[in-house]
Amino acid sequence: MPESLKPPYLEKVEDHDSIAVWIVDGAYIRGHIDEEFTNFGQHYRYPYIPLKEFWLDREAHADERHFFVDHLLTEYELMAKGMSYEEAIVVADRVERRERRRAGDVKKFTRGGTALPDPHQVHQRLWKKLENGISVWIVDGRMVRSVFDIDFTAGGHDYVYEFVPENEVWIDNDIDDDERGYVLLHELHERNRMASGWPYNKAHAESSRLESRCRHHPDLLHDALMAEGWG
After folding, report:
1. Measuring CA to CA, which of 26, 38, 155, 197 is 20 to 30 A from 49?
2. Residue 112: is its pLDDT beyond 80?
């Protein structure tokens, strides 16, 4: 990590054998080190994380920590033995998914396994309905990951996730208020580009660049959001 950057550590929460588990400032990491850092990470996925450390993004609700640590333990061990990330994440996701089922998350949304989950159940509050008909919802991120997609991170919309209802953008409730505007910008820009015919990879790459620019220049965020229909 360059010396000009501050360490992102907030709190050491536990040790697993010789591995230290740290809560880190994910917003700082995304703004200064790696805009693609997600809910958690380890060295073999993100080389800037030291060996024998797991980094967990600070959550608004610390109720998924044990799921993430179980995932990281599996991913780290397999990648240390030479397995690729693409292979290791499949196994780690399986372990994490099993733990989420044991916690009862899926049962809550499927009437004990007797019904299909309703995506509207993860809505927590309507942030705003835009003039173009798009509804932006704050959603229960834990339940989205447990019930619909274990890799859901920060936000999403109906052009990427088939379980998101038409004309909806979702923002994870675990995203801090100070960071929500940047995630919102990414999702709105990406959705608008995909609605005009852009493929996901192209729309995502441009949205990431726009998000990164605004993270480095926060004074640009308001006008950038207005340009995406956030009036």
Report:
1. 155
2. no
